[in-house]
Design goal:
Elements: H1 4-17, H2 24-43, E1 51-53, E2 66-68, E3 73-77, H3 82-94, E4 106-112, E5 115-121, E6 131-138, H4 149-163, E7 172-179, E8 182-184, H5 186-191, H6 197-208, H7 237-255, E9 260-262, E10 266-272, E11 279-284, E12 289-291, H8 297-314
Antiparallel strand pairs: 1-2, 2-3, 3-5, 4-5, 6-7, 6-10, 7-8, 9-12, 10-11
């Protein structure tokens, strides 16, 4: 099978050589042939048979996830009805587009103890010691294209009440984070009205790329008026630059088109909390993918603004 570097190189070359007049759907279809080799290689691997409950569930409505004994694979419960099956289909379809290399490896469905799961690669595989996790949701619009008027009204009300003065106005926001003693979850993020865009560079990115013991806990207060103590920790700027480079390749891949729209998905960043440690970046939460020929400006604009914010912090003097 083709390696990830080969796939990404093909995407980059396609991005540079494709005429602006070429429909995005056809470009995505062309990229599909390049990424198909990855799925074939993954399917040939031996499936894990020993699993344990994954602790510290970070969010989502689904039941607890399972992790293989070797830490390589995860089982995500398919207990959300049609939404779960939409996500399975999204992995199958998006895995054959320019976004394929940025998804967790997908290995189909499995039944364990009467529960249906989908099997995916773990974003923490081979990582050791203390790890940091950052979940950033992309897109100002978070509801499906076919959402009911009631759903749209509910999500619009939540946006106006909680996120109207946050980074969500730029199409991205923090959904969760855990790095040392710093924990951001739905409770404290809602209480402080999320984060302003400026806070990403002021303390969020530095906290994620900090070495042990990491930043202190988040003090009470609203967005822009409080921040955690850095505790004098060092920042792995080299890892940050590597992640930024990967983000820019994802941006180029997304602009090629991927045959649909993605709503309420996240970028999951993970890393070992040490200088030169392993890191990973994966696009997750695909339950709101809708195949279409529409250009997904909601997702792409949010990603573009996230890249610009990340770039400004990385290159600040």
């Amino acid at each position: 099978p083709l390696g990830s570097s080969t796939v990404l190189s093909a995407i980059e070359n396609k991005a540079m050589s494709t005429p602006k007049s070429t429909p995005l759907g056809y470009v995505a279809a062309a990229a599909a042939g390049v990424t198909a080799g990855l799925a074939i290689g993954y399917a040939m691997r031996k499936r894990n048979s020993e699993w344990k409950v994954l602790g510290d569930k970070s969010g989502g409505a689904h039941a607890a996830m399972m992790i293989s004994q070797d830490g390589q694979r995860l089982l995500k419960p398919l207990d959300q009805g049609e939404r779960s099956m939409v996500e399975v289909r999204a992995y199958e379809l998006l895995g054959r587009t320019s976004l394929g290399p940025f998804l967790c490896g997908f290995h189909g469905m499995i039944n364990k103890d009467g529960m249906e799961y989908m099997e995916i690669d773990s974003a923490y595989h081979r990582m050791k010691g203390k790890c940091a996790t950052l979940d950033i949701k992309l897109g100002k619009k978070t509801w499906d294209d076919h959402a009911s008027p009631e759903k749209i009204a509910k999500e619009s009300k939540k946006f106006d009440e909680v996120y109207a003065k946050s980074s969500a106005m730029d199409g991205f926001r923090v959904a969760g984070m855990k790095a040392g003693d710093l924990v951001l979850d739905s409770n404290n993020l809602k209480a402080r009205f999320s984060l302003k865009t400026s806070e990403f560079g002021e303390w969020l990115f530095p906290a994620f790329f900090a070495s042990e013991p990491g930043y202190g806990s988040l003090p009470p207060g609203v967005a822009g008026e409080c921040k955690p103590d850095s505790r004098g920790t060092s920042i792995d700027k080299q890892a940050a630059r590597e992640v930024l480079a990967r983000l820019k390749v994802l941006q180029a891949a997304a602009e090629l088109g991927y045959g649909g729209t993605i709503r309420a998905s996240s970028l999951l960043f993970t890393r070992e909390m040490r200088q030169g440690g392993l890191w990973s970046m994966k696009l997750i939460d695909l339950a709101h993918y809708t195949p279409s020929q529409e250009v997904d400006s909601n997702f792409c604009d949010g990603l573009k603004n996230l890249v610009a914010t990340f770039d400004a912090w990385c290159n600040a003097k």
